[in-house]
Amino acid sequence: MSELDDIVDIFDLLGDWDARYQYLVELGEKLPPFPDEQRTEDNRVKACMSKVWIHASPDPAGGGRIRIQGDCDTSIIKGVVALLVQLTSGKTLEEIEALDIDEMFQRLGLFEHLSPTRHVGVYAIVELLKQKARDVAAAASRRAV
Question: Active-site residue among 48, 93, 99, 125?
Answer without folding.
Answer: 48
